[in-house]
Amino acid sequence: MADEGSSATSHAPIAGPLASGTTPSLTLARSLNCDSNALLSMPPFDLFVAQLSSDSTEARVDAMKKLSIVGDAMGTKDTIEKLIPYLNDTIAKSEDSDEDDEILLLLAGQLAELVPGLVPGYEAMPLVPTLERLCCIDETVVRDKAVETLNKIVPLLLPGGRYEDGMPFGLLRATAQRLASADWFTAKVSAAGVLPTMYAFWNAHASRGAAADEVRREFRILFKDLSEDDTPMVRRSAAKNLGRFVEAVAGLTESADDMIKSGVAQPAVADENKRLVTFEIVPIFQALSADEQDSVRLLAVSCAGSVGCGLAREPGVTADVVLPVVRGGCADLSWRVRHNLSKVFATVTGSLGFVGSKHIARQTEVFKLFAGLLQDSEAEVRAAAVENIARMAQLGGADLFQAHIAPLLPALSDDLVMEVRSKLAQTLMDCCDPSICTTLTDEIILQDFRPLLENFLNDEFAEVQLHILSKLSRVSHLLGQMDVVVNSILQMARAQNWRVRDAVGRLLPFLAEARGVSFFEDHLLEPWLKIMSDQVADVRAACIAGMPKLLSVCGSEWIMQEILPNYTRMYDESHSYLTRITVLRSFAALSEQDGDKALKISDALMEQIVSLMLRGLTDSVPNVRLIAARGLGLVTISGQCDSGVMKSKIVPALNDLVHQEQDIDCRYQCQLALEAKV
């Protein structure tokens, strides 16, 4: 009969080192003082302890990497009662040993793997003391990983936990107090990282925690003390986590960046929470933003968006509280501060709440500040600011974009630093993406973007060209009015960089749609066929992917007259099986959809497709037969093939190949094609 105290979710123990499914390595065998028979019969926990106690660093690292496997083999109950206490003792012995930092880093990461898969969240409380000790380790990467794991585990402790009175609230409160009031700065640095999560935990489960308001007040005091600590590393950690702490105090469940990007309405912030943010958190934000250390200021100003959302994006309040910090950040003497603010400028702008004609003066000021960052003397600042152009256009509208951003674009497109031009090319195409920006009209794109696109397509760096080519389909309806752009694309079909040729191949069907079928025949058919014969497989795949679009634009009759004869000739004259595979895949792709639009293939074209696929089934190369069988499966699934052709040609050919084919993969594809008919 099972022990009443055992966990209902515990796993059955798996004896021996083979529980992990791996044979003990030679290094492991040499590191342990036991014979091979004893090693094979050793229980998982004993093997783990022996390996972790070895003098071999490689063996100890290997043991810690398999901690989650050992826990799985031991089961939930033994993991909590034996493995976790042993690990806690191991940390205590290793706190003063630099050589064990790699072991401790692995431990901090492996503990996260135990929850909630092996150890349910409501039984994970024994992990908290272990992680607390790891949060005090001198090595930065160990502390950061421990904080990350603790932040993952804390929200899972409830609901469902069967705790004594006050637990886990008492344990978490004591943990926060010990970390924040420690003598050495390492624990305080970690405290700033876990306080936002603990505050949010009390928000979610306040009804079950005694004196919840008092505990939250204590957490705010602890965070304030950390922000005023004499050690710059502690203040830096407080500034780094200030945004999360503001969101927790305000009771927000989403980050400011996620809210602004998604465009969702500002969730209501309770009056009491807004008061706490205004009178307790804002002074911390202002102090850290004016800190003497630029490493603190740069982290503080990047939290301006969270502060604005914590103040419910009320324009009157954010203008007095957040906007002065933004002004100071844009004019800061440290380029690193301006750089960090530039990276989040669109989020900060959205959090200010300056919407509508009533706040046009403040909107204009914000866009002037952004224009200053776009013209910054440091290339890193300009590059970071440029990435926000699309979102700023969406937030401010076409008028502010044309007044403050558009005049700066020509200078940015000629920037001497390639990274600036590359990011500008990317963000210009984002301005044409309806999911990101919907405020810029076709007239603005043609007027302000067309010269820049022409410039970028002739850039000396392929990365800049690719940002335009890979997304130019977003403005395919305007390509008919961009002659220079189209001519540049045609010249790039012969580019040395295969990624450029790949991007051109994917764009050609959109050019056919924009400029007409006759233009494709006269100017694009030759580049298309060259790309179809390219030496690089991904470039040839671009033509395969473009076939549905080409059929949608040009129709079945045109495909039969212009494409089919050329492809058939390529198939017949091919010296490589790769060419035949490409041709077969191209025609099989016609059976697929062009986006959400179903394609209609004429009976005559379908007959030609089926004939070519049947030829492929008799090829001497198994790879070609496999692709032909897969193509027939797609034809069958499309439902556009005549039932008479299916019964008289396709099914008999596939049945014959199933019985005669020696290659197992070919037989499998034939069977899938036959099953698709059913």
Summary keywords:
about 675 residues, mainly alpha, 39 helices, globular
Give a topology summary:
Blueprint: H1 26-31, H2 36-41, H3 44-52, H4 57-65, H5 67-74, H6 76-94, H7 101-114, H8 127-134, H9 140-153, H10 169-180, H11 185-204, H12 212-227, H13 232-250, H14 256-262, H15 271-289, H16 294-301, H17 304-310, H18 315-321, H19 323-330, H20 335-343, H21 345-352, H22 360-374, H23 379-386, H24 389-396, H25 398-405, H26 409-413, H27 418-431, H28 442-457, H29 462-469, H30 483-492, H31 498-515, H32 517-532, H33 537-554, H34 556-573, H35 577-589, H36 603-617, H37 622-638, H38 643-660, H39 664-677
Helix pairs in contact: 4-7, 5-7, 6-8, 7-9, 8-9, 9-11, 10-11, 10-12, 11-12, 11-13, 13-15, 13-16, 13-17, 14-21, 15-16, 16-20, 17-21, 19-22, 20-23, 21-24, 22-25, 23-27, 24-25, 24-27, 27-29, 28-30, 29-31, 30-31, 31-32, 31-33, 32-33, 33-34, 33-35, 34-36, 35-36, 35-37, 36-37, 36-38, 37-39, 38-39
What's a quick, concise take on this entry?
The chain has 39 helices and no strands. The chain has helices at 26-31, 36-41, 44-52, 57-65, 67-74, 76-94, 101-114, 127-134, 140-153, 169-180, 185-204, 212-227, 232-250, 256-262, 271-289, 294-301, 304-310, 315-321, 323-330, 335-343, 345-352, 360-374, 379-386, 389-396, 398-405, 409-413, 418-431, 442-457, 462-469, 483-492, 498-515, 517-532, 537-554, 556-573, 577-589, 603-617, 622-638, 643-660, 664-677. Helix 33 (537-554) packs parallel to helix 35 and helix 35 (577-589) packs parallel to helix 37.
